[in-house]
Amino acid sequence: MRLRTKLFAVFLALSLILTGVLAFEYQSHRDRVLTQAEADAENDASVTASQLDERIDAGRETLVTAVAHPAMARHGSATQAARVDALADETDFNGVSVVNRSGYLVAIDGESRTNVSGRYLGERRYVRRALAGEAFVSDPFEAETGNTIVVLSVPIRENGTVAGTLNAAIYLSNASFFASLPAADEGDRTVTVTADGRTLYRSDPPADETVTGTATMAATGWEVTVDRDRAAVLDSVRRLLYGQTLPTGAVFLLLVACVAWLYRNDIRKVEKLAAGVAALERRQYDRGPDLGGSDEWEQLDDAFSRLSKTLAERETMLLVLNRVLRHNLRNSLTVILGRAKLIEESASDEGTRRNAAEIRAAADELGSLSEKARTTEDLLVPPSDTEAIEIDLADLARRVVGAHRVVGPDAEFHLSAPATAPVRAGPELEQAVDELVGNALAHAGKRPRIAVTVERRDGRTEIRVADDGPGIPPDEQAILLGEREISQLHHSGGLGLWLADWIASRYDGELDIDCDGGTTVTLRFESA
């Protein structure tokens, strides 16, 4: 993986981690806030229900205290009426009345007592329960005045027996009973009190989305619901998110700045250096990377420039030496071949003619070596991607073996190849295979036996050329395979195998040598 790709992969990973941590912290805080809000709503509902229970209980205690006065049992008396009026004036009750043991209304506060006095109320539940000796709280109902009320009733006793009931009405529809509830004072809360599905009180309309808590009043069984505005609850979470966004954004910008700095000051220079090396491979020695920056990069830049200059000088020397030698060698060989031919044709004795023939053969070999040297000069130019073409290695092997069968009729050839074996290489591949077959013929036994095999193995295609000769000496094998440096004592005797190796390397192939009962040279390429 390229350094640039690694850098951006690390940057992306860090960005995702940073974003994930922020999202996780936000979600965790949000869940905690909502959980706490639900607990707070449940607590508010419980406190509100307890407060309403206390008001009911306080009302009943007030009535129990009032009936302890003897005047409350004197039905129809002025003292009873006075006690009823005083009870209504001194408490928060919206109406006070007295019903005798027969169920008839005998006293009521206010000016309307003459109009309703003597009215039968014995069928009402709160009267019946109180006459039965029970302090009772009625279910909410709508009175003749149109108000929704609840009535507290306690029995009036005289000499240990129930002589009537004292009743106190509380109006619910005007919300006086629910005034100053603690949860209702806060703007983000809505308090609702219901009885049997009927809404008795609601402080404000609830929000569209709420966090809800409920509780049940012990005295009446009414349900108290506290709704908190979910959006208001989450305001603190949003404020936390906004508060974290600024430092997180600063960290992200710092990360971007670090990545940009690292890319510009290191990775970009490495890419320039790699491009400079690629230019050297293309023999473009005047394209330095121009790294700049710190002292270390300046030193690399200077070292690269010196290397480019040295390689350019050495290549020039190599090309001049190659061309001058080939030119002079070709001219001298022309003279030698001409004179040897004259000597061979004009000589009268067999020994002289044989010597002239040997001179001509040696000159021909030097000429062939000169042509191979010209090929090595061509191989100095690295191939481009467009130069590699698809070549059928099986068909190429058949052509090369066919040509050598013509020039070497005494040799025995064995060819094994599939119908097709395509590889990506260049036209020089045919010369490489020809060198291998020619080298095998030159070093095989008295009656050469050459085996050429083309096959695919593990996604690669290879051609093997085997002979029955004595094999390549170990020292020369080590030099050809790069296991030993060339010296005056250790060197290769020809260019054929070198050319095959160079051509294979030119197209990402490889050469292998095995000398076990002869010599087997293998060229391997990626299958096309």
Integer average pLDDT: 80
Reading the helices and strands in chain order gives: HHEEHHEEEEEEEEHHHHEHEEHEEHHEE
The span between the termini is 24 Å
Shape: rod-shaped
Number of helical stretches of at least 4 residues = 12
What oligomerization state is this entry in? single chain
- Point out poorly predicted stretches: 486-493
Kindly name the structural category. Answer: alpha+beta
Q: Beta-strand level of the residues, as a percent range?
A: 15-25%
Main β-sheet, in a few words? Answer: 6 strands, antiparallel
Architecture overview:
This protein has about 525 residues and is an alpha+beta fold. It has helices at about 5-65, 80-90, 115, 125-130, 230-235, 235-280, 295-345, 350-380, 395-405, 430-445, 475-480, 495-505, and strands spanning about 95-100, 105-110, 135, 140, 150-160, 160-170, 190-195, 200, 210-215, 225-230, 390, 410-415, 420-425, 450-455, 460-465, 510-515, 520-525. The strands form four sheets. Strands 1, 2, 3, 4, 5 and 6 form a six-stranded antiparallel beta sheet that branches. A five-stranded mixed beta sheet has the order 12-14-15-17-16. The protein has a four-stranded antiparallel beta sheet with strand order 8-7-10-9. A hairpin with a 4-residue loop joins strand 1 (about 95-100) and strand 2. Helix 6 packs parallel to helix 7 (about 295-345) and helix 8 (about 350-380) runs parallel beside helix 12. The two termini are about 25 Å apart. Residues about 485-495 have low confidence and may be disordered.
Keywords:
five-stranded mixed β-sheet, alpha+beta, six-stranded antiparallel β-sheet, 528 residues
